[in-house]
Structures
1.
Amino acid sequence: MLESYLHEKIVAEEMFPAQVNIIEGIHLSYVPHHWHRSVEVDYIMEGDTQIYINGNEYVSSDDTMIIVNSGDIHRVRSFSGRKAKALSLIISYDFLKERFPKIDQFQFSLINGEEKNDELKALLRELYNLFEEKTDLFYVWKGNALIYQVIYLLFCHYSEEKTNSAYLNKTEKYKERFKLILKYINEHYKEELSQEEVAEFCGLSREHLARNFKKYMGITFKDYLDSIRLDYALSALLNTDYSVLEIALESGFGNEKSFSRCFKKQYCMSPSQYRKIVKNK
């Protein structure tokens, strides 16, 4: 499961050219930083959100849209106790590439199409309502129509051709470096992985890695490693009957105490309490 989070492979339902995710609850997301080739459009209707895209942090509240371009390293998560309500539309890269072969030469920006924001939000709200209920007998046709309208708006009003500026080249350099770093962490998170080991792998000093990891990812190396382990552990907690100790060891935490401390920090309750509450729903 976790392998898909690092380089997230987006597989749209056969009936649609995009994956439509309806998100509700206190925790908008706890997926660690990841990337995928697909284009992602998120609409946070309610909730306080913290957004990281390629090392830049954005904080927003209700009624916020986000566009994540192909290959962007990103994370979107809630940071307060307010309930979140959001839609995430992940448009298939293969679908876009097949119909617009020059897609790799373009990127999308909300700044370019501000005058169309209300129209785009209205389409995303309609998608949310349609996929939340799925009561419309012809929801597949309606869903496709709405998704195509979103794609049309993106290309007509939010797209721009990439340039070869020094800034863009530097951004791409950092993106590629951190993709390799995240891949390495993802492959070794169950081991006693140290910051020194990762620094040696990517040819940096420990201090340089620590400084740039915090700057580019918005969190420390240790917090990111814990988030990877926690994501795996959460899945095991909900989908297996393994004991908390077994899950802690399998996830790379080393012992039950460190796992429970990390889990409580994120979910404000112990792993056992969380498992009991979810399974009793």
2.
Amino acid sequence: MSKQQRQLKRKRKRTVKLFFLIIVTLYILFMFLPNLYSSKAQTILVKDEEIEKKIESKAITIKDEIIYEAKSKGDLKFYHDEGEKISKNQVLITQANLSNIEDYEKQIDNIEKEIDKLNKENKSNTLFNKDFTKLEKEINKIEKNIVKANEKENSKEIEELEKQLKEKQDKLKTISQQNGFMGYTTRQLINQKEELLEKISKNNNSIISDESGLVSYLFDGYETKYTVNNMTNLNPTDIDIKKPQIKNIKKISDFSVGEPIVKVIKDFKWFIATNIPVEDAKQLNEEQNINIRIKKDSRKINGRILKVNNSKKNAVVLIELDSYLYKYYKDRILDIDIILKEYNGLKIPSKAVVEKDDVKGVYTKNVDSIIKFKSIKIIYSEDDFVIALPDETNQNSISSYDEVIIDKKLIENYIDE
């Protein structure tokens, strides 16, 4: 056999093998792929899921905000960080001629160091300072009472007060002599410190907190529109969902007298107001406890419905919250879910649910392709699906990961059978 004939023979063998391989492949595809496609299209595995009945909406946050305004045009000195928790009667901001005040503060710092040094050198000096200060206050009080007694022309009272004054002055003199130069030096330093503190007081306007809460320098212009005083009267048209322009006071250098410069947000309770359709609002009741979800971080918070103000088409729902304000105090607008109810069960397509012998259920298929009718107990339904539980009264009931038939034609055939 020639070389050319051998090559031709090999080529024919390869062609025959390729032909048979194609035939086998087509057979496999023909036999198995339709079954796989059919199985996928005709059934669905059901499993336990958590489903919520909810109302999605946008909400306005309402906080109890105490606003403090600029008292002058002086520079601002800040004492707290944004969002810091402060107590009542703390200095929030000082408006002043800062160059003068800084100089006074340096002098006070030096005086305090000198006083501390003197006190260490003479431990008894601490006691002296207390006694000295106490006697000075008592003498000042008696002197004021003498003035009042003179106005009343009460000679007897004047005589008694002058006697008390002399006793106090003599005692003060004795203490001063006993403490010698050290006592006078410390007293002089204390007087200098008090004079400097008075100068600082005259050169600045301090803003003191009236309440405890969270400090904020961020203003969006809605602080006076949405308040705890007017929130129960809000109507649907009052809810403005436009994104506000935030002004950060710390980044502004020029202020007018009366302009808001800091606020303290009481952090015990806060509120959200949302505008929803009346039909949705009918599912809510005043004083009802309800869960809401803040969508930005999926946090679920428990609240209480304070008010539902209905109009023709829409309603304003006001909800009180008492936690997590520190997370959302900067936000004026929040995307939320009002969770009406939560269900746990098997999620089944509505088209798979049938009724057989007055029992609701579904047809399932096992690994051996055996078809069975299994009962279900529906606890929640929508147009496209139902949430169901196993029917405890029926032994042949659905369970998690059953393969439920959803093909309508197949279901109809089984029903006819």
